[in-house]
User: Fold this.
Amino acid sequence: MRRSNLPAELNRFVGRDAERGELDRLMADFRLVTVVGVGGVGKTRLVVQAAREAQKRYCDGVCLVELAGLRDPELVDHALVEALGLADQTSRPPGEVLADHLAGRRVLLVLDGFEHLVDACAAVVRRLLLSAPGLTVLAAGRRPLRVDGEAVLTLAPLPDEDAVRLFTDRAAAVCPGFGPGDPEPVRELCRRLDGIPLALELAAGRLTALSVQQVLVRLDDRFRLLTRGSRGATARHGTLRTAIGWSHELCTPEERLLWARLSVFPGPFDLEAVEYVCTGPDLPPERVLDVLDELIAQSVVLRDGSGPAGLRYRMLDTVAAYGAEWLAALGDAQRLRRRHRDWYMGLATWCELEWFSPRQAEVAGCAESALPNLRAALELCLEAPGEAHLAQHLAGTLWFYWVGCGRLSEGRHWLDRAVALESGHEDARLKALWVLGYVAILQGDGTAAVGALHECGERAERVGHALARAYTTHRKGCLALLSDDMQGAEELLGRALAEYRELGELNSQVLMGQVELAITKVFQEDLEAAVSLCGEVLEVCEERGERWTRAYALYVLAYAAWTRGDLVAARELLDECVVIDHAFHDLVGLVLAVELLALVTAGEGDPVEAAVLQGAAGRMWESVGPPLFGSAYFGAPRRWCEQQVREALGKEAFLAHVAEGRALGLDAAVERALSGRPCRAAAAVERAGGGRGPLPEMRKPAGSPPVKGGEPAG
Assistant:
């Protein structure tokens, strides 16, 4: 797990000294503390600040989980797995993964924006607190979780002095040199806004065009009008609605329209998405940027930073909810949701095509950033009558993300739901089926894989879908490979590749089929054929800028180099392989590379480091599936390495160093695998785009059979 994923502070934290002290006391006495209060009162900011101040007490890390954009209660566990950086790819329930990971660790888990998922969140928190005695949960929402042992802190608005300080601080940010002059209008404004931080920040954002006195007059004029329809709301909730509604009333018609339409995005969005989803005759594309700029200036829309996927924007949940009410009142919500879905269907299609290109890393970052929106698109497809085929198509199109970016568990969730529906569209169902089979294979769930591939094969034959038949044959070959049926795998993979050539199909999947065929060759000691096949793959990867499949080809070439006794070449190939797989969060490729790297390290004369790497790999397998797929062929290098290193170190020392490796987190394990060889590691990063005596017995003699009776030969 990352030590902390708390966001950096973008502006100064103001006030709340008493609440921070009380919250710190509660966190010392209770394992579940929930901060509740009206929207916009500053719950999120307070709990993040409290977590930041307390993080030294949690030796295993602090993790913020933002749930406001999540709609499916079944994904709560997945969201926690994601936030903790576990990247689990097994078929185990994510709740089990969480419990296993947190047991024995001292962790602070911060849950924000859970109120719309309160039942699911309460069940998850209760289960985790019972199974992980070192866990503390700090939650922020509009209502308590109502879990036994929960301490609740109700957050009131800011007192007058703190409210004035906050308003003045934010006003100075938008109007450098701001000074209230006569402080009374500022005090009056803060009182009228009830000291609610979000309302104060929205008002401060207006000072680019209005004076404090003008803001106060306009707020007074609209107070009654803007609270109409909020009967039953608390006074403070009415004040917040007044502040948001006042800001809304001051917007131009175009700004109000864009505000409402932006509410369909449950996660960060970019300008291109806005230009497609939110435009029309009343808001032409050429006006979007200027209108969006105005909403940013008014603190309605926030910049979400710039990462691998580029600049993104977002709306606070309370502000988005207000916009959603207006969108519903306009009767336009479903049309906008469909446009939103169509954009992200198109984005997923673009990503799948561009995955086989030099933009592969950009595609991975784009899909990661778009995940909340992709989830919303999948949900709409699954719930809308007659659109199951769209869900199947989208879940299948995202194969590159499920498989290539460490999202097998979530991919399985959506694929299972999609294929459970009968869509009447064979193309979409066939794609979802072979992708489901692929994901299940990598999770070690052979039963599900066989069922999906059998259905896919039968349907493909019945309707004459040659491409689906080729993918089915390919994945059956992959299943045979992991089941140690080398002859069956060789026949099926060779047939699939021939079908791909006949159909003119060339992409990362096809190249992976060629790598998998090379694996059957290297396991059967046909090194020349394996090297030739991977050489062809590397040529295409170089030409197309493909890196994900390249890493698997490097693994096979490293295996061949080790078999021949060329440890220098094997090390260089594996260094680059590790860098690529880690960049894509592909745990399957990464753990295979680390396993082989342990064997190479032992051959270089360092049994201690080899044992550490074996321990690190053992922990990684827990997040992938059955260790080494339960395969004697894939498991042989580990057994050879363990046998020789155990003999060199002795049982107790061997186990101690394996335990040292198991204690390493993923990032630390990768750093350890590449450490001590800075020149080679730096060269690996560049290529990827991103004293004991030798132990000669560690090298398996060329020509000897790799496996016999499930045990290492010789």
